[in-house]
């Protein structure tokens, strides 16, 4: 009788998580099957068993990342029940939700760069932006939704890349100005 085969039902998920960790540390250019397998603590052969190639692994990893960020965004907007709460939710998304972990900034920029270079990855960023806009659309008209989505993106990037102190009150002021009705 053969020795019991070692089963590892979480192996695929560990590989995806390891891929995101490697990308956060080394960038897409530094992500190799060997490095990811080492990070995931799996045999190198597991990489090709679970993923047809690096593109399939990158798709899975960036879809997971985009879904995680979009889930936080949707949860924040879904909790808002009044216009004031929706405005506050937008501010909190910028201040608290988008880049909750330091590697989120790097991962965001890596998927943006990959999508800019390789159109087949734009489905990930497009789906991510669509989910954000649907969440905003619950509270705001279509034009405001587009502008708020861009404001959120821009302010989170500026805040993350600014050297020195950042005034959180300016974020609230920017959202207030955008939502101000004449």
TrEMBL record:
One GO molecular-function entry: DNA binding
DNA-binding annotation, residue ranges on this chain: 32-51
Domain HTH tetR-type: 9-69
UniProtKB keywords: DNA-binding, Transcription, Transcription regulation
InterPro entries on file: Homeodomain-like_sf, HTH_TetR, Tet_transcr_reg_TetR-rel_C_sf, TetR_C_31
PROSITE patterns associated with the record: HTH_TETR_2 (PS50977)
Pfam families for the chain: TetR_C_31 (PF17940), TetR_N (PF00440)
PANTHER family linked to this entry: HTH-TYPE TRANSCRIPTIONAL REPRESSOR NEMR, TRANSCRIPTIONAL REGULATORY PROTEIN
Protein name (Swiss-Prot/TrEMBL): TetR family transcriptional regulator
């Amino acid at each position: 009788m053969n020795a019991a085969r070692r089963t590892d039902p979480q192996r695929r998920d560990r590989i995806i998580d390891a891929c995101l960790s490697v990308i956060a540390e080394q960038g897409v250019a530094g992500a190799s099957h060997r490095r990811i397998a080492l990070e995931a603590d799996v045999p190198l052969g597991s990489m090709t068993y679970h993923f047809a190639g690096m593109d399939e692994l990158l798709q899975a990893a960036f879809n997971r990342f985009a879904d995680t960020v979009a889930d936080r965004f949707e949860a924040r907007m879904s909790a808002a029940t009044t216009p004031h709460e929706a405005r506050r939710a937008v501010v909190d998304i910028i201040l608290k939700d988008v880049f909750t972990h330091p590697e989120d900034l790097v991962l965001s920029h890596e998927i943006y760069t990959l999508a800019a270079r390789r159109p087949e990855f734009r489905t990930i960023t497009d789906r991510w932006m669509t989910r954000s806009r649907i969440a905003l659309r619950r509270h705001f008209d279509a034009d405001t939704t587009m502008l708020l989505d861009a404001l959120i993106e821009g302010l989170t990037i500026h805040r993350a890349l600014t050297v020195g102190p950042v005034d959180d009150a300016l974020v609230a002021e920017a959202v207030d100005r955008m939502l101000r009705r004449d």
